[in-house]
Amino acid sequence: MAFELTFTKGQGTGNDFVLFSDPDGAIELTPEQISGICDRHFGVGGDGIIRAVRSTNLAAGAAALAEDSEAEWFMDYWNSDGTVSEMCGNGIRVFARYLVEQGLAEIAPGSTLPIGTRAGVRDVQRSTSGFQVDLGRWRLDGGEPLVRARDLAVPRPGLGINVGNPHVVVALADERELDELDLGVAPILDPPAADGANVEFVVPADPLVHDGVGRIRMRVHERGSGETLSCGTGAVAAALAVRHWAGAGAPNDWRVEVPGGVVGVRMFPTEEGEHVALSGPAELVFDGVLALG
Ligand SMILES: N[C@@H](CCC[C@H](N)C(=O)O)C(=O)O
């Protein structure tokens, strides 16, 4: 059936998304429609698609409401190839801004907006650089696979980290190696990750820590989207991995430079264990209407 889809294009450090509002959960996009919309030549272009749906109107929203009855809105996220992901760190900041600007939600100064996701409810607040999201607990997960990438002469060990979605972080020798890496082809993990993984390549700044803040550069190949200009959860995983490798005394505040800009990562204690927060810009770029079907 043919229909019109009103959308907004948004981005956070160049990680870009097509957002649309479907409060009743009535719009079902096929993987082909999603990849067509995300196509940069034949569609709107984007690394992913985000649907704003009321948690009450989505099966996965029931778990979100059970966790936090205030989580009225659910971030329904698809990668550009039409696959679903549990979490998107840049996307959830852009989503929060979208909800606010559409008049669907408010974030009062000093308060947080709980948002349902497939990884659980996540709290978003305004920050000096835009928006900040508490991504909750994280865990080492997925072992230490060997990672092969084009232009890496020998495979490198990676570190599996889950921050709601799966990541493997790889340390490179220097900036030249990072810049010359060809991420047009997906890195190969050995052993492969059961559900796939986002793969981050990192190098430390010199010095690694400046004024108490750890500093790294990162490039990423995202599961389901290929190389992107930024990945928020990837930046969080990269900072956690480098802190892990640096050992005792490493900082809990990190500045992560990605091709599309800079995001901040902060680890902090809570009653249920350590949480990790991501901060950075969230911009809405333009609105449009697509004829689909
Ligand atoms: N770019 C996102 C992550 C999007 C999902 C990812 N590709 C996956 O499949 O897990 C971010 O900013 O975190």
Provide tags for this entry.
2 domains; globular; binds the ligand N[C@@H](CCC[C@H](N)C(=O)O)C(=O)O; Diaminopimelate Epimerase, Chain A, domain 1; about 290 residues; about 15% helix; alpha+beta; 19-stranded mixed β-sheet
- Secondary structural class: alpha+beta
Mean pLDDT: 97
The CATH homologous superfamily name of the largest domain equals: Diaminopimelate Epimerase, Chain A, domain 1
What fold name stands as the CATH topology of the largest domain?
Diaminopimelate Epimerase, Chain A, domain 1
* Extended strand count: 19
Enumerate the distinct ligands. Answer: the ligand N[C@@H](CCC[C@H](N)C(=O)O)C(=O)O
Give a quick account of the main beta sheet: strands, pairing sense, barrel closure. 19 strands, mixed
Work out the helix count: 5
Query: Gyration radius, to the nearest Å?
Result: 18 Å
In total, the number of domains comes to 2
State the end-to-end CA separation.
5 Å
Instruction: State the share of residues found in helices, binned by percent.
Output: 10-25%
Shape: globular
